[in-house]
Amino acid sequence: MRELSLHVLDVMENAIEAGATRIEVRIDEDLGADRLTIEVADNGRGMSKEMTQRVLDPFFTTRKTRHVGLGLPLFAAAARRCDGDLTIESEPGKGTRVRATFRHSHIDRAPLGDMPSALMAVLLSGRPVDLAYVHRVGEAEFAFDSAEVRRELGEVPLTHPAVRQWLWQTLREGEESLRTKPSD
Amino acid sequence: MPKIKSLEELKKIREEAQKDLRVRTETGTRIIIGMGTCGIAAGARDVMHAILNELARRDIEAHVETVGCIGMCAKEPLVDIEQAGKPRVTYANVTPDMVPRLIEEHLVKGRVVQEWALGRLDSKGIQ
Q1: DSSP per residue over A143-171, as a string?
Q2: pLDDT tens digits for A87-111?
Q3: pLDDT band for position B126 (50/70/90)?
């Protein structure tokens, strides 16, 4: 995949397939340590030890439940190419946590890319799922939690056109704020 | 979290939305985009981006929803358009360039773009 945000989206889709009702995404760009860490944690059905080991095998898939496909091996390969690694912690009934690290300045590291669209794809999912997102670049931070948005909205769904527009704009402005120096 | 002003906007949206919530969800248009690994790798996220942009640009109200893999991976990105009272149409191998014409012809003029349609799903089943 040509953007890391597509890998993040893929892991989030895995979480939805695993029945998660809440997904927590953390992206930490530690420029001092030259490290990029991406973490996706969900409260889905989780996996046994054996399965956790096997999901990084490209020829393994749980086609029936579609929890994992070729996605994780590709993500792991992308991390390892960049002096990083990918680890998976999972517990049946509790959830799964996928953590990928990269050398931030590595020449082969794909750009993070269009995170707002990746997050939108999850927020517009036919299966309602809450998304907590924190993106740090150095000292700057953008945090977003759809559970708070849902509380404001009551019975109005996130997929409502006006809400959707609000979400997309909020996410884009949040991400942009990380790329520019704060004025206030 | 978003700024306070932004959350105020959300409150307004809620008040407005409650008035016509039922009308919109029961009689409106739904656009469904496949977002499994296969869809993502084939560009489904960028197709979604193009759809959201086009709907916003033309101020068209439609529900957009993402779903997982449905098993036709080779035809991804798959986009289904469903309008109340009409058969659900599946479009295959959709690219962002195709989106303006899909919206113009199918959503605005109500004509199925036959050359891009994979099939129709109506009360009699798949056509």
Answers
A1: EEEHHHHHHHHTTS-TTSHHHHHHHHHHH
A2: 999 999 999 999 999 999 999 999 9
A3: low
Residue A184 pLDDT exceeds 50: no
CB contact, 8 Å: A164 with chain B? yes
Q: Give the CATH superfamily of B25-126.
A: Glutaredoxin (3.40.30.10)
Q: What is the pLDDT of residue B86?
A: 86
Token pair for A134: 């924190």
Best probe of the B interface among A7, A122, A124, A169, by most B CBs < 10 A, is A124
Label residue A136 exposed, middle or buried (CB < 10 Å: 0-12, 13-18, 19+).
middle
Phi, psi at residue B28, to the nearest 5°?
Answer: -80, -165
- Indicate if the pLDDT at residue B5 is higher than 80: no
What is the model's pLDDT at position B48?
A: 96
pLDDT tens digits, one per residue of A64-76: 544 446 788 999 9
CA dist., res. A7 & res. A10, Å (int): 5
Domain range summary for chain B, segments of one domain joined by +: 25-126
Nearest CA in chain B to A147: B1
What's the order of all strands across the beta sheet hosting B63-67? B63-67, B29-34, B79-83, B88-91, B117-122, B125-126
CATH number of A4-179: 3.30.565
- Dist CA B36 CA B22 (whole Å): 29
Q: Does B116 score more than 70 pLDDT?
A: yes
DSSP code at position A128: -
A62 touches chain B (CB under 8 A): no
Residue B15 region by backbone torsions, left for phi larger than 0, else alpha for psi between -120 and 50, else beta: alpha
